[in-house]
Amino acid sequence: MRFSTLGYSIKQGVKNIWRNKMFSLASIATMGACIFLFGIFFAVVINFNYIVKNAETDVSMTVFFNEDVDQATIDEIGTEIKAKTDVVKECKYVSADETWENFAKQYFEGKEEYKDGFKPNDNPLATSAHYEVYVYQVETQDALAEYIRSLDGVREVKQAEGATTTLTTMNRVIGYVSIAIILILLAVSVFLISNTVTIGISVRKEEIGIMKLIGATNLFVRAPFLIEGILIGLVGAAIPLGLLYVVYNRVISYVMTEFSVLSNFMAFMPVSAVFRILLPVGLILGMGIGLVGSIFTIRKHLKV
């Protein structure tokens, strides 16, 4: 398509929007509502995933050793675990003395005399040396635990099976719900854009017939309606995205200020990180919906 033809198509597309401004505004408003809802849903889901992923990295497995195992074997076990670099995020060794110190600090706080009742070399948790193993994704924990149990010198592997199951289920539910809601929003938006373009075709029916009689190509006739759909989608996406940027920033700031206790176990994604993904996705989604809606309508109502 030549630049002059493209310029004409854009101009006619804008005229179509202006001619049917009430329907265009209704489409932009509805599109904006859909993108706004999509943006809210996206922000909730991406933050929920972020919180869940952070929770996953805090769920550890504890690897205990046989009583007669030597330090060389313990080190070898650690090397074997750390070699699973695609699964293991961190593998930390905790000696029996460290385990006893941590236990005493937690349970004898304010009653240090109880701890003093034990001799310096009399560690009641002498067989409690262990590795604390953290994974990137909680779904991989079961397979890793089976592998570690097969290593020589490993007595037991403890894992938070309830937490693992819960987090895995939550990840799946989030994925299914996300797909369902996105499909519904897409279908509603395509329907609205389609109705607006249908009206534009009806209004210009006679003009289109004359253009065909004088030799206008199919692309030349169809292009303004495609541009119209894309522009409606672009404007309908840009407005709610700008509004979402302001709302998200203020809501997160308010929540973290008024409910500061949440910061101890919840971390929200900064607005820049969210919109680094949401902005291009929202704009492309809006233009794509407009284009698809226009194509469907043209095929159905514009026989050229």
Automatic annotation (TrEMBL):
<feature type="transmembrane region" description="Helical">
    <location>
        <begin position="173"/>
        <end position="203"/>
    </location>
</feature>
<keyword id="KW-1133">Transmembrane helix</keyword>
<keyword id="KW-0131">Cell cycle</keyword>
<keyword id="KW-0132">Cell division</keyword>
<keyword id="KW-0472">Membrane</keyword>
<feature type="transmembrane region" description="Helical">
    <location>
        <begin position="224"/>
        <end position="248"/>
    </location>
</feature>
<feature type="domain" description="FtsX extracellular">
    <location>
        <begin position="59"/>
        <end position="157"/>
    </location>
</feature>
<keyword id="KW-0812">Transmembrane</keyword>
<feature type="domain" description="ABC3 transporter permease C-terminal">
    <location>
        <begin position="180"/>
        <end position="300"/>
    </location>
</feature>
<dbReference type="Pfam" id="PF02687">
    <property type="entry name" value="FtsX"/>
</dbReference>
<comment type="function">
    <text>Part of the ABC transporter FtsEX involved in asymmetric cellular division facilitating the initiation of sporulation.</text>
</comment>
<protein>
    <recommendedName>
        <fullName>Cell division protein FtsX</fullName>
    </recommendedName>
</protein>
<dbReference type="InterPro" id="IPR004513">
    <property type="entry name" value="FtsX"/>
</dbReference>
<keyword id="KW-1003">Cell membrane</keyword>
<dbReference type="InterPro" id="IPR003838">
    <property type="entry name" value="ABC3_permease_C"/>
</dbReference>
<feature type="transmembrane region" description="Helical">
    <location>
        <begin position="268"/>
        <end position="298"/>
    </location>
</feature>
<dbReference type="InterPro" id="IPR058204">
    <property type="entry name" value="FtsX_firmicutes-type"/>
</dbReference>
<dbReference type="Pfam" id="PF18075">
    <property type="entry name" value="FtsX_ECD"/>
</dbReference>
<dbReference type="GO" id="GO:0051301">
    <property type="term" value="P:cell division"/>
</dbReference>
<feature type="transmembrane region" description="Helical">
    <location>
        <begin position="21"/>
        <end position="46"/>
    </location>
</feature>
<dbReference type="InterPro" id="IPR040690">
    <property type="entry name" value="FtsX_ECD"/>
</dbReference>
<dbReference type="GO" id="GO:0005886">
    <property type="term" value="C:plasma membrane"/>
</dbReference>
<comment type="similarity">
    <text>Belongs to the ABC-4 integral membrane protein family. FtsX subfamily.</text>
</comment>
